[in-house]
């Protein structure tokens, strides 16, 4: 029955397909059509998000009943649970390690500087150097794909681009331990972006059953073989990474929706939300378990969450102007940051990093030494200030030793009743420094000179550090930069309006949001994340205001940080909106640069091997001839499917005539055609064919996609772009205008009940639209 259905489907497609022109005006290459980037070149390939409805797929679907469908859905939810647990535990391990390394480092340094500041500086520098060296060594020697934040690569994957090595097991290990070394070593970067990449790696590895190379695999979880199912799992992992980094489950869902994914549906949203909720439960459970002190320095303030609920209760209308100014500053500094990092990263890729891994390690170590010297040396040049009068029930203690949770750090002060405001934010962990900048009831804790000094130095360090061969996120450095100039503006507002209920920490929070909006160009997800990590819903309108202004200002100069980095790395992203000049182009004009390589339905094995070896195309139209001699396109066959057929050899035949599908048994399951995730898969060079094999034939009809998407040659390129991106396609046929129409589908034709009958609305409104 299925064989007859396939044969009937091919015959129907023969009626629908237009004649193939003899000229080379059309192309089947997707990246050439839209991005002027040939699919298969440059180290990246497109993913097959489209369901290939060949005979193997239809046969497999026919044997699946409702029980299997229920099992399939249940396994998806179970995998969402596992992704949440795995990402939560990875985040707990990273934060526990970072907090303990930083705590031990500052405790040891503070104990030594009681006797000698020079000896303390040497110890401080050496500890940071060892941590950064270990991170750079792991990345360069073990997991090169783990360098950077990983968000541009994951964004490219969800956009339909497969970058080798992005989601491998060694990338996951390098991301985890590399983040511990780079963040614990005091570099001007964060661990939030790497956590997103970590969650995506965990999701991908669970979906493919582990790692075959390291013998950590199981056949049971290998249920999700298609790129479409893996895409859903990776989306869950991205949301889980943000939820774990900020303890912001709703922000994680919105981040996945707004920033990384290109394709969304309601069923996926439920699973993403469930995964983020599981992460929040795991993280909060771990932090509650660590409150007893069994986790060392981790527990009380380890994760990034800054409670400002006890800060400013209300705001005045006259404060909106300085808040808008903060938004403008954030847009300008964010756009400048994107441009400077683009120049630095481009210079590294084109000159410095071409000299080898040793240069990458030396560069990271030099930046570590400079960062340690600045964070230790600059506070020594700053004069200490007397501690303010203690406020009852404020919970603020002055002074405190470096590296301890709280404000007013005592560093190089003559008396015990003094503190160093520059050391409070410089000679401290980034999380504790942000808490100090966000803190309420600490009026005039920082001087304008100290804030300006810190802003200039940390901004420079963040630009220089971004792009080194270590895992690097930009969320926390962006919050540090923004909160610094935000607090500076808040100081002037307090002095100008002379209102006692205006908190400088409120403006620091708005500054942090403005810089992230001006650099990363996120709005909704970032707004929710900032509310969740600060626990102050009253500031929501103000955060929305500065985000809108900063994004508008930043968009006037350049693209967002992740888009800039993706373009620099050669990741051909399809953005949500087509370019303006595409309105003046048609589909035929976009694909004139390449020649169509078509295959006959029955083809010699030698010809298949020759074609695959002579080009890099990943999709080939398959043509057949009618009895009258007409050339018709009957479908599309993928390069990966041809390679599987050549390797297995079980479908070779001696006859050059097509076989009757009803009399032929398909020896392949649909899962055999799936490519391993984040790897190159089979190559034509890996397949060995004898001289007898080369003289055999293959009938491609059972293995092709008989119903690929088609557009007429004169369709607007804007419409082609939207269709291509929204459906997640890899190939799109461009054909001449069809000569006739056999039917017309409307909305009510798709309102079909499960029993195959039309709905009541359809029965009442049925009309005949058949074209005679």
TrEMBL record:
High-level lineage: Eukaryota, Viridiplantae, Streptophyta, Embryophyta, Tracheophyta
Molecular-function annotations in GO: voltage-gated chloride channel activity
Segments crossing the lipid bilayer: 68-96, 116-139, 233-256, 268-287, 320-341, 451-469, 475-497, 509-533
UniProt key word S-adenosyl-L-methionine: no
Protein name listed in UniProt: Chloride channel protein
Record SUPFAM superfamilies: CBS-domain pair (SSF54631), Clc chloride channel (SSF81340)
A Pfam family hit: CBS
Localization, UniProt: Membrane
Natural source organism: Arabidopsis thaliana (Mouse-ear cress)
Family per record: Belongs to the chloride channel (TC 2.A.49) family.
GO cellular component: chloride channel complex
Keyword Hydrolase attached: no
Protein's membrane topology: Multi-pass membrane protein
Signal peptide residues on this chain, from the entry's feature table: none
